[in-house]
Amino acid sequence: MDAQFLPRSTEANERLHQLVPGGAHTYAKGEDQYPEGLAPVISHGRGAHVWDVDGNEYIEYGSGLRSVSLGHAHPRVVEAVRRELDRGSNFVRPSTVELAAAEKFLATVPTAQMVKFAKNGSDVTTAAVRLARAATGRRVVAICADHPFFSTDDWFIGTTGMPAGIPDEIAALTVRFPYGDLAATEEVLRQHDVACLILEAATAVEPPPGYLEGLRALADSYGVVLIFDEMITGFRWSEAGAQGYYGVTPDLSTFGKALGNGFAVSALAGKRELMELGGLRHARERVFLLSTTHGAETHSLAAAMAVMDTYVEEGVTARLHALGERLASGVRDVAAAMGVGEHVVVRGRASNLVFGTLDEQLRPSQPYRTLFLRQLVAGGVLGPSFVVSSALTEADIDRTVDVVAQACAVYRKALDAEDPTPWIGGRPVKPVFRPYA
C-alpha cells in the first residue's frame, strides 16, 4: 500500500498542511510520524476499528493518543453525553453536573481530597506547578528526565528539542532528575531551590522496590511538593491511578486522557491544604489556580462520570491487562520465530505497551520503525504503539499478531541486507521533538 491507494487521504493531508500548521492539532498525530504516503486521514471509528476517507478499515492502537481506552463511540459514554446535550452545555454559575463529577472523581481516587476540572493535560500540570511554587515560595521545577512529556507550557517545552520562542531564563528554572535513582534526585534537591518534583509514577518500566516511597520521603524531608502526572497511568493502572495501585500518595496529581474516553476533560487533584490556596476559604495570598471557560462543560463531565462508572463496574483495567498480555506474548513469539526477537521489542505494562525497533547494533532506529509501521498500516493495523483499548477482541489481537509476523519477515530481510532503505518507501519517520522540520 502507498499513496496511490490513499488518494483521498493524500489530498486531505495537503489541504490540512495549507490550513493547519503541521497538518494536525497534535504533533504526535503529524504526517511525519507515519511512513511517506501512508498517513491515513480518518473518517470515523467504532470500537477498536477506524476507517479512513479512502474506505480502508484498520484495527487501531493508542486510540486518541491513549485517551480512548473504552473504544470509539462507547454506548454508555455516548448516552451520558446525549442526555446533557439538550440541557445546556455551559452556564454562568456551577451546574449540578460539576458537583456530581467532583464527588464521583474523589470517590474513585480517594487519595485526593479536592479536584478541579479543565480541558487538557497541560492546563492541569501547569496549574500544579504554579500551586507548588506558590505554596513553597520557590522557583525551580524538577522534572523526571526519563518521561517524555508534561506540558505545552514554557516551563517544560523550554527543556525539549523545540525550545524556540522560550527565553533561556525561563528554561533555566526547570531541572531534571533520573527515574529510579533516589541518590541522584536528592543531589538535585541539595543543589537547587526546588518547588516540586513532577513525574509519572511509572510508564515504560515499573518503579524499583521502595522508589516511590523513597521519593515521598525525600519530598517531605526537603519541603518539596510531589506531583504525579497520571495522564497515562490514570485508570490504565487502576481506577485510582498509579497512586492507588502502588499505595503512595502524592501531594498533587493530574489526570486526563482515559478520563473522558476522547472527550476533552482533565483534572487536578490533591491535598486540601494545597488545593484550597486556589479557592476562597483561606487567609493566605490567593493563587490563580485554574479558571477555564470550558472546564465545566456538562457533557464532557458526564462522559467522565460514565467512564469512571464503566471502569469500576465492568473491571475495565483488568481487561486492558489481559488484552495487552495476549498481544505482548503473541508479538514476542512471532518476532522470535522470525529471528528478530532482539530487534522488535515490546515494553511497558500490559495496559500501556509500546514497541521498539532496533537496528543491527541494537540501537533505536527511525528507518526500521518506518519499515515496521509501513507493514502494519499495509496490513490494516494503525498502531504508533501497542496501547490497547477494551473494545479490542481476541480476534483483533490475533489478527494484529499475524500482521506483525509479516512485518517481522520483512524486518529480517532488511537486517540481513544491513539496510532498511528499500523497504521504507521514502523518508523515515521523525521524532516529534526536533529543532527543524
Automatic annotation (TrEMBL):
The keyword Cytoplasm does not apply. Keywords: Antibiotic biosynthesis, Pyridoxal phosphate. Gene3D superfamilies: Aspartate Aminotransferase, domain 1, Type I PLP-dependent aspartate aminotransferase-like (Major domain). The keyword Metal-binding does not apply. Its cofactor is pyridoxal 5'-phosphate. PANTHER family: GLUTAMATE-1-SEMIALDEHYDE 2,1-AMINOMUTASE (PTHR43713), GLUTAMATE-1-SEMIALDEHYDE 2,1-AMINOMUTASE 1, CHLOROPLASTIC-RELATED (PTHR43713:SF3). Belongs to the class-III pyridoxal-phosphate-dependent aminotransferase family. NCBIfam families: PRK06209.1. This is Glutamate-1-semialdehyde 2,1-aminomutase.
